[in-house]
């Protein structure tokens, strides 16, 4: 399962200023659709609506044919994994941070997720700036390493649907390449909605939608869009 459909979705934070003006697209189960477009286009708003942080004022959002208006936020959070732009760590070990929200997971499962995200060496470490025991230093994690914590958490949770929010935008190009590989692994076989600034980070998407001022202005594969210039 995990087919996601937006049908003529309309939304405004302020009635005088529409943000989404009739957005329709489908992410078939197991496929990847990327939304690209300039800052302010409404991309993050789409993901907030998918989590029901806000309700659309027109149209519908469906998961496997069911309108999410009838689904609780708790169920949506179980069905949809999110790798956000900035990962905020909790005041505990990296292992705890990976397990967060997935309390039944065994230590072995946490280690395996950490290993797939290539942070297994950090599992029992405490991040810098948190309540480390007197005399001990916390571990300073880079932006890429923090993102790997979010990736490991998502691997452990194993949701059918993924939202990747501009997941590599804050990283240098080498780290970005590495994180992109990790994300490609996580999204394989899952329904994935990628929110991105640049076409170059979404080469492998099954479909790319270009959102501008709340409407989809172009759609196609990476090659189609390059050909269209
Ligand atoms: P994108 O992700 O494409 O950069 P967003 O969906 O974050 O765009 O924002 C679209 C527009 O909605 C922007 O003009 C932004 O300023 C506005 N906006 C975002 N969040 C809010 C909010 N909570 N209240 C009012 N306006 C908002
Ligand atoms: P913003 O632009 O306001 O920083 P984002 O677009 O980065 O927000 O994130 C969209 C929303 O998803 C945020 O409100 C964030 O709190 C929420 N979010 C982040 N991680 C998760 C998660 N694992 N599950 C559900 N919601 C999440």
TrEMBL record:
<protein>
    <submittedName>
        <fullName>ABC transporter ATP-binding protein/permease</fullName>
    </submittedName>
</protein>
<comment type="similarity">
    <text>Belongs to the ABC transporter superfamily.</text>
</comment>
<feature type="domain" description="ABC transporter">
    <location>
        <begin position="4"/>
        <end position="229"/>
    </location>
</feature>
């Amino acid at each position: 399962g995990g087919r996601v459909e937006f049908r003529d979705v309309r939304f405004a934070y302020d009635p005088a200023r529409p943000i989404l003006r009739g957005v329709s697209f489908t992410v078939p189960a197991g496929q990847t659709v990327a939304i690209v477009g300039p800052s302010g286009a409404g991309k993050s708003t789409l993901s907030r609506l998918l989590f029901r942080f806000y309700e659309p004022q027109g149209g519908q959002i469906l998961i496997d044919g069911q309108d999410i208006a009838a689904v609780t936020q708790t169920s949506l959070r179980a069905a949809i994994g999110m790798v956000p732009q900035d990962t905020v760590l909790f005041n505990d070990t990296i292992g705890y941070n990976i397990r967060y929200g997935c309390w039944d997971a065994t230590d072995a499962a946490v280690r395996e997720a950490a290993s797939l995200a290539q942070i297994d060496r950090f599992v029992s470490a405490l991040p810098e700036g948190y309540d480390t025991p007197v005399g001990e230093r916390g571990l300073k994690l880079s932006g890429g390493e923090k993102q790997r914590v979010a990736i490991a958490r998502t691997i452990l949770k194993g949701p059918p649907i993924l939202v990747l929010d501009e997941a590599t935008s804050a990283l240098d190009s080498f780290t970005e390449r590495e994180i992109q590989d990790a994300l490609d692994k996580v999204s394989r076989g899952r329904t994935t909605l990628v929110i991105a600034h640049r076409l170059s980070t979404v080469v492998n998407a099954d479909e790319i939608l270009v959102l501008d001022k709340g409407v989809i202005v172009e759609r196609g594969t990476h090659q189609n869009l390059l050909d269209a210039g």
